[in-house]
Amino acid sequence: MSLNATLFAQLVVFFILAWFTMKFVWPPITKALDERASKIADGLAAADRAKTELASANKRVEEQLASVRDENARRLADAEKRALAIVEDAKKRATEEGSKIVAAAKSEAEQQLVQARETLREQVAALAVKGAEQILKREVNAGVHAELLSRLKTEL
Hints:
By secondary structure, the protein is mainly alpha-helical. It has helices at 3-136, 146-155. Helix 1 (3-136) packs across helix 2.
């Protein structure tokens, strides 16, 4: 065998191997590589979509949290306003009630003072009549001298 025949035989075997590989081996490999590339691309696209969805979900959550915080702050402010209004109303009612109690006490004290003065006048009038009896050594008739006694009461 010469070198040319060996070279020719190797060329023929090489081309048959290349044809066999291109016909039966290469298509499943390229198909598997294409499917893998497609799956990777789909996975990357899904990851990008998930990132955007996560970002939008985080944004919605932050907006809702901000809304809830604002709502809570508003409710707390309303509750504080209502509490202050209730306290002010209670103070106002207590002041009014205190004023009524003080006015009633003053009125009662005034009535008691008038009654005490009247009682004192009657006692002084009785003492004056007794004193006059002692001075005159005779009895003074209260029915006859009623006008004199009433004048004496008013002067006292």
